[in-house]
Design a protein that fits this description.
This protein is mostly beta strands. Helices cover about 15% and strands about 40% of the residues. Among the domains are: about 20-30 and about 290-405, YVTN repeat-like/Quinoprotein amine dehydrogenase (Methylamine Dehydrogenase, Chain H, 7 Propeller), CATH 2.130.10.10; about 135-190, no CATH class; about 480-585, Sandwich (Immunoglobulin-like), CATH 2.60.40. One of its GO terms (cellular component) is ciliary membrane.
């Protein structure tokens, strides 16, 4: 590359193994004093001599003193001041006349400055917007001295808070003044007409009627008042105007204006809108979960970078294809197109000093730089076809040349997801029974859900009733909890009217003693009498059966018998650990039900 210095640069972001690197370090200047972003970079043969130059819309240090710079190799060839901060730069062919040299378009403020052979050629200004009627009426009253400056300020502030349309520059300047300066400002400007001007936020090019590389192209502008304008390349009149729900910040187009085209606009509300030819409003909408930081079209896929440190792939109809998570925040994005190999990939500059190159979701290459990259541009520079130009956050300039023998292999630079993750599953074909069942669920989905809920509630009710019945009847002579392994056996002895009731309580655990148990008797006091209906149980050693005796006196002279419930409880708890039923009178002992 004749126009680019081939000197080596220490620490210019070369990969650790220079022999295995796919890039040649052509130039690195950390003090180049270039502060810009990817939309303000363009490569073009501006003079038709086969020598491609780099066009830079430079913001200047701290956003001061914006300038238009043209670089030939590593050196600045020409430099001119700009009236406002640049928003985008693009090169395009305006006409078919020979010699075929591209024009340079630079969007800055409300104007597009067109250069031919690096000389000013045409200035296009956005059409003025109609002022707010209330604002116009207030300035008319001020012109006739019907309201004082203080009242004018209060009314303008009220309009600014409630109206959807922003105020004019004249009104905004008036609201920033001190009280002592307002009267002089009103006297100076009250006779002037109010003008409301919008500004350009983004710009790109669209082929007019041919898809050739050197075909005539139209300029597509995105404005602050939520509109897209398509300009005629010769007369610079507005060919088409489209409205958007929000302010566009990134644009991608495909097709030809006279035939068919698709236009994708990423907006400040976090959505991407797709428009087609003859459509005044968006046809499709892609809703993102975060704000977009970049938009690149790779073949028929829209690749979007978001503030969630991730890349997303979408179709033109809004279907999400894939997502790749980045190790750091995305600062800038651009397209890498290698014509000799038919390769198109997306480049993403990250905040950790890396530039990652992806084809779909497959990682092709990683370039490490000494400073975070804020703008990227790939194409023909000088006489080299595949040149990568990067500018850094500190104002540095990095130029790399892709080796002619370099071949990008998926996963060649870093381990990514396994190949099996991208393989499609062999899903069996849908049977007739499956289709019929699916149709039935669609048609009777509400009724099926209600029937399921009814059965579920009935099952829960039945389980609750059974549990309550078990608690009330106390039908469990063996503890069901592993924390209190107990076993209870009852025996009645005697002929009456006094009986001896013996309870055999056993700790069935292997090593843990049990302490703090209580025994309670529930019985009909009209039929039976017990000396103690409630007493404590001593320490239960594992494996031993403890006999606990008491006497029961029958009070009925008619031979009426009943049951006595025996409950074993833990101190401080109301729910029994286990229970048993004792038939009285009789000597059959415990009745298991």
């Amino acid at each position: 590359m004749a126009a680019v210095s081939s000197s080596d640069s220490d620490g210019c972001g070369a990969e650790s193994n220079e022999a295995n690197s796919k890039w040649l370090d052509a130039h690195y200047d950390p003090m180049a004093n270039i502060h810009t972003f990817s939309a303000c970079l363009a490569l073009a043969d501006l003079h038709g001599d086969g020598e491609y130059k780099l066009v830079v819309g430079d913001l200047g240090p701290g956003g001061q003193q914006p300038r238009l710079k043209v670089l030939k190799g590593p050196l600045v060839m020409t430099e001119s001041p700009l009236p406002a901060l640049p928003a985008a730069a693009a090169t395009f062919f305006m006409e078919q006349h020979e010699p075929r040299t591209p024009a340079l378009a630079l969007a800055s403020g409300p104007c597009v400055y067109v250069y031919k052979n690096l000389r000013p050629y045409f200035k296009f200004s956005l059409p003025q917007l109609p002022p707010n009627p209330l604002e116009q009426d207030l300035w008319n009253q001020a012109k006739e001295d019907q309201i004082d400056p203080l009242t004018l300020k209060e009314m303008l502030e009220s309009i600014r808070e409630t109206a959807e349309e922003p105020l004019s520059v004249q009104s905004l300047s008036f609201l920033q003044l001190e009280l002592s300066e307002m009267e002089a400002f009103v006297n100076q400007h009250k006779s002037k007409s109010i003008k409301r001007q919008t500004v350009i936020t983004t710009m790109t090019t669209l082929k007019k009627n041919l898809a050739d590389e050197d075909a005539v192209s139209c300029l597509v502008l995105g404005t602050e008042n939520k509109e897209l304008l398509v300009l005629d390349p010769e007369a610079f009149t507005i060919l088409a105007k489209m409205s958007l729900p929000s302010v566009p910040v990134f644009l991608e187009v495909s097709g030809q204006f006279d035939v068919e085209f698709r236009l994708a606009a990423a907006c400040r509300n976090g959505n991407i809108y797709i428009l087609r030819r003859d459509s005044k409003h968006p046809k499709y909408c892609i809703e993102l979960s975060a704000q977009p930081v970049g938009l690149v079209r790779v073949h028929k896929i829209l690749v979007v970078g978001s503030t969630q440190d991730s890349l997303h792939g979408f179709t033109h109809k809004g279907k999400k294809l894939w997502t790749v998570q980045m190790p750091a925040a995305i600062l800038t994005m651009n397209l890498l197109e290698q014509h000799s190999r038919g390769l198109q990939a997306v480049m993403a500059g990250l905040a950790n000093g890396e530039v990652r190159i992806y084809r779909d979701k497959a990682l092709l290459n990683v370039i490490r730089t000494p400073d975070a990259v804020t703008s990227l541009c790939f194409g023909r520079y000088g006489r080299e076809d595949n040149t990568l130009i990067m500018t850094t956050r500190g104002g540095g300039l990095i130029i790399k040349i892709l080796k002619r023998t370099a071949v990008f292999v998926e996963g060649g630079s870093e381990l990514g997801p396994p190949p099996a993750q991208a393989m499609k599953l062999n899903v069996p074909r849908k049977t007739r029974l499956y289709v019929d069942q699916t149709l039935r669920e669609r048609e009777a989905g509400t009724a099926m859900h209600r029937a399921f809920q009814t059965d579920l509630y009935l099952l829960r009710l039945r389980a609750a009733r059974t549990y309550l019945q078990a608690l009330e009847s106390s039908l469990s002579p063996v503890s069901a909890t592993a924390r209190e392994p107990l076993k209870l056996h009852a025996m009645v002895q005697g002929l009456g009217p006094t009986f001896k009731l013996t309870l055999h309580l056993q700790n069935t655990s292997t090593a843990r003693p049990i302490l703090g148990l209580l025994i309670c008797f529930l019985y009909n006091e009209a039929l039976y009498a017990l000396p103690r209906a409630f007493f404590k149980v001593p320490l239960l050693v594992p494996g031993l059966s403890y006999p606990l005796e008491t006497f029961v006196e029958s009070l009925s002279n008619k031979g009426i018998s009943d049951i006595i419930k025996v409950l074993v409880l833990r101190e401080g708890q109301s729910a029994p650990l286990l229970s048993a039923h004792v038939n009285m009178p009789g000597s059959e002992g415990l009745v298991a039900t």
